[in-house]
Amino acid sequence: MMNKEASRENQLQAFNRLLNIMDELREKCPWDRKQTIASLRHLTIEETYELSDAIMRNDLQEVKKEIGDLMLHLVFYAKIASETQTFDLADVLNTLCDKLIFRHPHIYGNTEANTEEEVKKIGSS
């Protein structure tokens, strides 16, 4: 089994590979170039249902595939938005990180929570 640093490096390399492929597809593939956020919407919904079905069947190989399909869509949306300088993937990820930190003051702040119930109580206040 890989150590944590090697595993993280592999994850970052794989994610960078995906971003490079998305850049290339958006530039060179007529179908990918034509897509808009609106045109991808129904395909994203379909992929979400496929992920849900794989989860319900406990088919972890299919779950892995469907997570990839959804990740492609998320990267695709961010790529399209970056082309109009609306936002980019870094904006998406930093917004998500800020939200997670805000929602977890028991981890990133001075609040204490040792049980799931205490965490839920913090979130509802």
TrEMBL record:
One of its GO terms (biological process) is dTTP catabolic process. Keywords: Hydrolase. Residues 35-107 form the NTP pyrophosphohydrolase MazG-like domain. SUPFAM superfamilies: all-alpha NTP pyrophosphatases. It is an enzyme of class 3 (hydrolase). Its EC number is 3.6.1.66. Pfam families: MazG (PF03819). GO terms for molecular function: ITP diphosphatase activity. InterPro entries: MazG-like_dom, NTP-PPase_MazG-like_N, NTP_PyrPHydrolase_MazG. This is XTP/dITP diphosphatase. It comes from Adhaeribacter pallidiroseus.
